[in-house]
Amino acid sequence: MDFIETDDFRLLYLDPFQTYLTPHVARTFQNSMAFQRRIFDWTPYEKSTLLLIDLSDYGNAGAGASPSNGLTIYVAPPSHTLETLPGGERMYSLMNHELVHVANMDVANSLDLRWRSFFGGKPRQTEEHPESILYNYLTIPRLSSPRWFLEGAASFMETWMAGGIGRAQGAYDEMVFRAMVRDDAHFYSGLGLVSKGVAADFQTGTNAYLYGTRFFSYLA
């Protein structure tokens, strides 16, 4: 494993198998980071750690901000079955989406920063120590936002940043909601979406994306 480090990120990757990807990953990260800083007036609490892995047949990514800012990126091509994902370049789309998550969770006001100083960072909540839930909330309260809210924000922004190519204007989302209206299907409430909705899900957590993205599109 090798790494590239700048003032904004630390990129971990397997050399030589993933070395060819690193310039593109670095550029897309920097471009997205500049956009998030400007739009959200966000100054990152720390540099992000990016980990490139190839343990899946389909591309994906995940982001976190506790205990530190980071992205895990599955480098395989994404699945476009049923058009749940648009046909944009995958690293560009993933960076735009995942860095919105980091910005939304990591952004802090003066009170959050005082608690981070007191705790020496952003404690991660654990089942073994339930009191850590409180410590986590004091230092990074926006991490406790519902998943549909976080995914909706990231999907909306990824679409905006790609000039309209994204799930906020995807054919799959429109088809699902039109079919639900036609069939008089049940629409989940905000509470139902994070309880029953996750058990009746389809296409890997897509309810959070569908409802959240439609919510942000409605606000826009």
Helix and strand arrangement:
Elements: E1 2-5, E2 9-13, H1 22-40, E3 48-53, E4 60-64, E5 70-74, H2 90-106, H3 110-119, H4 132-139, H5 147-161, H6 171-182, H7 190-194, H8 206-219
Helix pairs in contact: 1-2, 2-5, 5-8
- The low-pLDDT segments are none
Round the Cα radius of gyration to an integer and report it: 18 Å
The share of residues in helices is 40-55%
Q: What is the global morphology?
A: globular
Structural class estimated from helices and strands: alpha/beta
- Beta-strand portion reads 5-15%
The overall pLDDT, averaged over residues, is: 91
Number of strands: 5
Q: How far is the N terminus from the C terminus? A: 43 Å
With strands numbered from the N-terminus, the spatial order across the biggest sheet is: 1-2-3-5-4
Major pleated sheet: 5 strands, mixed
Number of helices: 8
Order of SSEs: EEHEEEHHHHHHH
Oligomer: single chain
Task: Please explain how this structure is put together.
By secondary structure, the protein is an alpha/beta fold. 45% of the residues lie in helices and 11% in strands. The protein is built from eight helices and five strands; from the N terminus they run E-E-H-E-E-E-H-H-H-H-H-H-H. Strands 1-2-3-5-4 form a five-stranded mixed beta sheet, with helices on one face. Strand 4 and strand 5 form a beta hairpin. Helix 1 (22-40) packs across helix 2 (90-106), helix 2 crosses helix 5 and helix 5 (147-161) crosses helix 8. The longest helix has 19 residues, at 22-40. It is globular. The relative contact order is 0.11.
